Predict the structure.
Amino acid sequence: PPQIVIEQVGYGAGSRHRNITGIPNVLRITIGRLYIEQEPLMWQMEANIDDAEPRVVAHAIERIVSSGASDAWAEPTHGKKGRLGVKLCALVKQETLEQVERVFFEETTTLGVRRYPVQRTVLERHYVSLQTKFGELTVKVGVSKEKIINVSVEYETAKAAAEQFSVPLKRVISEGLFAAADAGIIAGATVDVLENIKHGTPECT
């Protein structure tokens, strides 16, 4: 059955007196609301692969993410006949389930894909642009109950700055975190500190 919040359950008996099937002539109807309206329900997809080279797996992960998956990764496995392989995994929303599944089959050697519903708790995310000695960096801020929980420098902007200034990536990330701290954006601070800083629309993915 679908994942729902049950509101009503009803039973009804049929009118036929002669029943040659031996199955009770009754019907049950369940009425409810989709559970996904209450909690962020997603699907986890998996496939065990033991006959593909690493470059194929890496490319499959890129294609899976570009096809709409919220996350994708590979876990080392030890399968049948002593073969070393990977378990290719993806976290997928309902609306992108079909296209991501297609990538599993097109880009890997698997003959089957497992999927099952999962729940997760997500933080509200804000994206803040801050000026540093390495230019403008984007800082991702995780918020829960009006308080900042996590602060991190967005990878792509940090990578671009590291390449532009020919410095180690970890140095750029440190500068971004220093800039965030100078602006009061630290774990435990209230979300009010973001109001005076130009930032993007809160987003959950």
